[in-house]
Design brief:
Distance between the termini: 20 Å
Number of domains: 1
Shape: globular
Structural class: alpha/beta
Helix content: 25-40%
Radius of gyration: 22 Å
Number of strands: 18
Oligomer: single chain
CATH architecture: 3-Layer(bba) Sandwich
CATH topology: FAD/NAD(P)-binding domain
Strand order of the largest sheet: 5-4-13-14-15-12-16
Length: 413
Amino acid sequence: MTKNILISGASIAGPALAYWLREHGYTVTVVERSPQPRPGGYKIDVRGRAMEVLTRMGIADEVRQHHTDMRGGSFLDRKGRSVVEMDADTVGFREPTDVEILRGDLARILLAATEGVEYVYGDSITSLTEDAAGVTVTFERSLPRRFDLVVGADGLHSTVRALAFGPEERFLRSLGHYVAIFSVPNMLDLDRWEAIQAEKGRTLNVYSTKQDSQAKAAFLFASPELSYDRRDTARQQQMLAEVFAPHGWIAPQLLAAMPASPDFYFDGMSVVEMERWSTGRVALVGDAAYGPSPASGQGTSLALVGAYVLACELAAADGDHEAAFAAYEERMRHFVTVNQKQASNIKRMVAGSRFTLWLNRTMMRLMPYLPGTAKIMEKVRAEIRDVSNAVELPETRPEIRSELRAEAVRNAS
């Protein structure tokens, strides 16, 4: 029976998968390129079935305690004046059961839930050599090791996907937009509030959560494909400054604070599209397999549900990894497809023309006075609710989980 599994990636999908594999009696190792767990990060949503997964893990209440506690947001005109204000759940189209949380807080909670799992930080996989009995894995720093299976949970630019499936260009569909997010001083004195200001082809969002004495600045912009080294932060910051230099409002001050920020993030907005999420003894989960882009708002939920389903199918297949991978893909495919379609939200987030920008601003001004506004908002919320629940979770009886976990502890000792 398959017992020894390596996971690449320790953000969201990796620790979630490690938790459920351990619950089913597997020995799990997680390798992570970062030298340590990454704190902070931008705010993310956990919705629908993903919250059910957290409930089954027993950590849903803790996750709720660390929600961002955002009060709402303002949509601003080009001079920074408020056009309309909305409460936080309306801005995010959230249900009462959904949770908005900082990525780093969720990652920390998941990590704590996997106490006893082996984590190897500051290292990365360099090769995978598969045979009939397992996979030999080499690393940048550690000695080679053997595993029964390898799972890539290492994000949009997955190393495991590149090694097992080929160059990422084959699988990433660009949305023609880029995103940058980084911490800045709270120069607007925001109190659990976000301020959103848009121009043609670019949008700027500044927010501060209850956990953060600073603020986060999120920049979105449309662009043809850019050529740059993902490790060259200085070049990325230069490109961002060039795009937003004419933006006005508070953009100059934010860009001036950018070089000193400790958590600058920049990347293209892409959807990961693959015909299969497994090959041989290697599988993918989360953004590595089916990243829906930040524009969808559904990446975290897909990662949590995918990790749970993959672990359950491996346990149900009793060692037949090919059958498990096939069942995982069959159960997840529709859920992935409908959630990836939410990436079209980028058209609402960044105005593609001056007319669209004018129309958006006009509609924002009129929203408080239009009788059908509530119905329009509910329609959008209902669509997100539907796609967030568009999968049936396999059942794992608590008593079986307890027995398997006890067995894993006995084997480890």
